[in-house]
Specification:
alpha/beta, Rossmann fold, 2 domains, six-stranded parallel β-sheet, six-stranded mixed β-sheet, 12 strands, 46% helix, elongated, SBP_2_dom, Peripla_BP_I, ABC transporter substrate-binding protein, carbohydrate binding
Amino acid sequence: MKKLLIAALASTIGLWTVPAQAAEEIAVIVKTVNSTFWQNVQKGADAAIGQAGSDYAITFQGPASESAIADQVNMVENAINRKVAGIVLAPSDPDALVPVVKKAWEARIPVVLIDSQLTEGSEQYYQSFLATDNKKAGELAAQELIARIGKTGKIAIMSYVAGAGSEIGRVGGFTDYIKANSELEIVGPFYSQSQMATALNQTTDVLAANADLKGMFGANEPTAIGMARAIVSAGKAGKVVGIGFDGNEDLQHFVKDGTLGAIAVQGSYQMGELGVQTVVKILKKEKVEKFNDTGVVVVTKDNIDQPVAKNVLY
């Protein structure tokens, strides 16, 4: 009887000391952590995981730069090896990330893409894609530039990483619209590798070599900041019309002081929030859409203090 009592007591103690089930990990892997755009994506992801409850937790990481594609591939590989519950991924390269996303699919780990697409034909390996319609966003930037400088003259395109999914749509949409709706001559594109200092130096050289330049398009956050700083340094503010992309504090300042005529701003917070929410839905066996447009707002000096702009600026 005494032995039975001891055994029962030991069993009871065992029940009390069983640890709570660990939260399922959702890995959020972006193009770089060294950008306020992607940091704003993290804020959205954090908000979504807070709403999802204690069953889920996120990890957030990205390479030191958007051009460090091999590093991002390794991060996805490591997440698969950790057997995460799901992955939110902003792929830096449309081709290089396909094999590792396929590997996640084979491991039955759902992948939700944000911001940039993978190569056509890889759709079966991910469950949903959340992004700005980059082609449409590029067209909006082109419309804004034409409205400000007219349909003749010379413009420059300051781009970021050649071949990135978002770059193909965004710069492609901008270029196609300019060619179809104006006689503007295009200089470039020039690729900054998403490095502000590189964009500054490239823009300085372009301005020096093209005294008759009327406008410029800076196609992502670090590129647009470098472009705007070069315009100021060259004494061209108010003379060369700059259209930027994304909406951090530096770019907002350049809109307010007139260095940039406008910025096309994506819903970066929404990408992080909806990305995590979508993975949670998939894990709960709920239906999700294959594509969701997270939108873009053209922000100018006239609307920068209005709710339509404040909802996307960061």
